């Protein structure tokens, strides 16, 4: 039974204010959660409530914090924390808007996750075990950013994330060792080749490239330099985040100095999938271009995972519609896009029902909160995307997964290639 709900302003990994919620139960257990924040947000996701005005560049969260301490705390007092569906339904009803604009998606997601944490604590279980409820789980296949671009790196590249995946690593621990080697090799390579401007928002290297393909070429070279075979041991995964530079099926690649229609865009990406060891592409078309998403899935979805992020915004309804239309074969799952734990789980279940890949994902604005590592394992998502292999808001998640892998001991299973909707060679 919920005794108290409280919130405070804390700071995220970009130094912006965000909401931390704390839920105390009558039995003494408690849970805590911090809302993450996106930079390349989908149009249809739950909206963050920001104060506007002068303070913190308008990014203050006083209103969202007040909503937690006021109406939300009153509504949840005495409620059963173990009934997450009822808690989330109450939050949705109290907000009353389609996009969580009144109370704030940031307020709701922090409370929803804090209730979940409190329920796990009341049972004396780590969150992943509480979520799994005895069902078999796997350690997720990581997607790890090596180069950052797009909205996270001053738009140095049009493509937002240049990532790697090691589906045949055999264990999470080994997958991270491979990642560390490639990350180091990529940094050394870029330092040799010229301007390297530190790291981007999610910790990936932030070099200056002359073209998007130059980044693909450098990443392939980094995989080799680290001693791995591109396309055999280590594959490339891209988040195009096409909504950031496309509207109405027209795409403007600033770096390549090219304007492309939807068909030409898919054609270009198909060319990349043939020229480079690419295993996964996220948001190859914009959120308002379902025909582009479907064309991409038809073109290379038999050999490349096609993920919807901004296109699906962790909505079960959108996942079902896209599955009907063949407009992706995997869903990115971000709890704060949906606004509550239950809605995010529904989107994950809808994707699993379609035999899609599912990837639990962080946001570009993160914190020390490691709940997503537990969600990825406890929900058996099969894959996880956390950003890069630097900055402690990222490393905290990787390190938590190592602890979970150790706790599972001989029962630890690495999802690896089985998590993908396509077969890597
Ligand atoms: P965001 O980006 O958190 O800045 O929205 C992450 C992504 O596009 O996957
Ligand atoms: Zn994305």
From TrEMBL:
Its main location: cytoplasm. It catalyses: (2R)-2-phosphoglycerate = phosphoenolpyruvate + H2O. One of its GO terms (biological process) is glycolytic process. Its cofactor is Mg(2+). (2R)-2-phosphoglycerate binds at residues 160, 334, 363-364, 385. Transmembrane segments: none annotated. Binds a second Mg(2+) ion via substrate during catalysis. Residues 2-131 form the Enolase N-terminal domain. It comes from the Bacteria. Its EC number is 4.2.1.11. SMART domains: Enolase_C, Enolase_N. Residues 136-422 form the Enolase C-terminal TIM barrel domain. The active site is at residues 202, 334. Keywords: Cytoplasm, Glycolysis, Lyase, Magnesium, Metal-binding, Secreted. Pfam families: Enolase_C, Enolase_N. InterPro entries: Enolase, Enolase-like_C_sf, Enolase-like_N, Enolase_C, Enolase_N. Catalyzes the reversible conversion of 2-phosphoglycerate (2-PG) into phosphoenolpyruvate (PEP). It is essential for the degradation of carbohydrates via glycolysis. HAMAP family: Enolase. Belongs to the enolase family. This is Enolase. The gene is eno.
């Amino acid at each position: 039974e919920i005794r108290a709900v409280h919130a405070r302003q804390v700071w995220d990994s970009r130094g912006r204010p965000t909401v931390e919620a704390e839920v105390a139960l009558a039995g003494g257990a408690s849970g805590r959660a911090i809302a993450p924040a996106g930079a390349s947000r989908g149009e249809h996701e739950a909206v963050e409530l920001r104060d506007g005005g002068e303070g913190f560049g308008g990014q203050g969260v006083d209103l969202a914090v007040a909503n937690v301490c006021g109406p939300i705390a009153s509504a949840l007092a005495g409620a059963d924390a173990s009934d997450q569906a009822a808690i989330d339904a109450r939050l949705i009803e109290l907000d009353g808007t389609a996009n969580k604009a009144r109370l704030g998606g940031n307020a709701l997601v922090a409370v929803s996750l804090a209730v979940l944490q409190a329920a796990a604590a009341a049972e004396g279980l780590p969150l992943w075990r509480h979520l799994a409820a005895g069902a078999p789980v796997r350690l997720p296949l990581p997607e790890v950013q090596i180069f950052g671009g797009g909205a996270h790196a001053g738009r140095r590249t049009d493509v937002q994330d240049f990532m790697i995946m090691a589906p045949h690593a055999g264990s999470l621990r080994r997958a991270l060792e491979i990642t560390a080697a490639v990350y180091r090799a990529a940094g050394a390579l870029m330092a040799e080749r010229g301007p390297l401007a530190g790291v981007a928002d999610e910790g990936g290297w932030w070099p200056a490239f002359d073209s998007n393909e130059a980044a693909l070429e450098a990443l392939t070279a980094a995989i080799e330099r680290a001693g791995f075979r591109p396309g055999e041991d280590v594959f490339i995964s891209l988040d195009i985040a096409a909504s950031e530079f496309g509207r109405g099926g027209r795409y403007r690649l600033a770096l390549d100095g090219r304007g492309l229609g939807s068909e030409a865009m898919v054609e270009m990406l198909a060319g990349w999938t043939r020229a480079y060891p690419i295993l996964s592409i996220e948001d190859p078309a914009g959120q308002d271009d379902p025909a582009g998403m479907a064309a991409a899935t038809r073109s290379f979805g038999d050999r490349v995972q096609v993920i919807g992020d901004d296109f699906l915004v962790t909505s079960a309804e959108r996942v079902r519609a896209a599955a009907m239309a063949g407009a992706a074969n995997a869903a990115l799952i971000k709890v704060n896009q949906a606004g509550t734990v239950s809605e995010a789980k529904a989107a994950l279940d809808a994707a699993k029902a379609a035999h899609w890949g599912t990837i639990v994902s962080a946001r570009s604005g993160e914190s020390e909160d490691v709940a997503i590592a537990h969600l990825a394992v406890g929900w058996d998502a099969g894959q996880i995307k956390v950003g890069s292999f630097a900055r402690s808001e990222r490393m905290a998640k990787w390190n938590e997964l190592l602890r979970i892998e150790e706790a599972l001991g001989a029962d630890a299973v690495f999802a690896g290639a089985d998590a993908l909707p396509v077969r890597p060679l």
